[in-house]
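re: ur question from earlier - yeah i can do the single chain one, its not a big deal. heres the input i used so u can compare w yours
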Amino acid sequence: MRKPVARRRVALHLGALAALLVMLYPLAWLLATSLKPADEVIASLDLLPGSLEWSNYSTALDGVNDVSVWRLLSNSLLIAGGAVVGNVLSCSLAAYAFARLRFRFRGPLFAFMIATIMLPHHAVLIPQYIIFNQLGMVNTYWPLILPKFLATEAFFVFLIVQFMRGLPRELEEAARIDGCGPFRSFFLVILPLTRPALITTAIFTFIWTWNDFFTQLIYLFSPEKFTLTLALRSFVDASSTSAFGPMFAMSVIALLPIVLFFLAFQRFLVEGMANSGIKG
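and the output i got, formated as tokens:
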């Protein structure tokens, strides 16, 4: 009996290892290509470079359009950080109202909010652009940050609602007896207990905002306001030779903050997703 069980375990581990190698291959290819000379990027299919071209990283660190990579990195961090703060604050407030408060039309409003998840982003892009253009906010960071403070991400509202519905109501009742109103109960009692869901919201918001290219391309025109995502496009020129080596090197640099952010909060991500899916 032990041999079949041992064989199944070995087969399971080998299958998991094979799947891991398949998933990690694009990352390995990116790292290897970032060190390849320009003639090997397109002409060679080998994973390992024939010679290491460290100048790709020095070119990437110089930036694009006379804008250093550190300026591009700070722009990306500013937008992603503002989006994280806005989503965590506004979505948690909206979720608290739907999950813990009693008010008229709460059910229909919650259903309408959930229905907006199926609304394509491109369907609201033009009306949003017209509004921000009339407000004089085009070519600024406001169109990329301000909507996050208005609880426009229904997915995160739903995620936090599911978590808050599993919290005991006795906690709020005890706080109400001590004289706490809805806002004090939210900030002092509910908000600290929803940390896993909030960290899950922060992680996904950071990753999605950091990798967002289309929205940033629509609203940002000046090179000094570009993010790392937009700067990658500057290495590819349809009318001349494309600098693929430095482009992949900057891709590696742009990937590092996401990896570090994810590794730092991975434990809370798993906990938040598990609890939000079970409770409620």
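Residues 38 and 255 are 21 Å apart (CA to CA). not sure if urs matches, ping me
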